[in-house]
Amino acid sequence: MTQRVDRYLNKEERFQEWTQLYSAAIYSYFQCSLRMSVADAEELAHHTFVTVWESMDTFKGYSSPRSWIFGIARNLGLRFLRNKRGQKFHSVAELDEEASLNDASHSPENLLIEKRNYELLEQIIEGLSTKKRELFKLRYVHEFSVDELTTLFQEPRETIRSRLRSAREEVKVTWLTKTKNH
Asked: Maximum distance among all alpha carbons in the chain?
């Protein structure tokens, strides 16, 4: 009988790989989905990976490492927001504005149209209910599968699919209404 060779030689290597694979996505999740400031997103991303390190021995592989790590991040982020209710969080548009303006391959007119469309789409998504917005961003920005979302939210698959369908329809109808008048 051959012995199964574990892909990871040790905890440090696995942690290093997970950090490289998911740290940018976790930071983006805090900033984009939960609308946190740069400083808060950095702090919570760091705290997420400290928690991951401390909890690695409890990871049983029932979900993907990405789902497990995002679950930790989500719990930390929601706890943080509950403690800081009432504070305003920065918009992702502020961060992307400079990068868009530095792209020399676009004409000024196209950049302006792109920026307006991006801002309108961001405004529409931000207008969704909290749960729909979070699901929408995790699915379409962070590319989580429906199965990963059911694990993360601990809700039935059909509930997740229904909320996503409703969020997409709400975004579509609002987009068509707002762009029809322009």
From this structure: 70
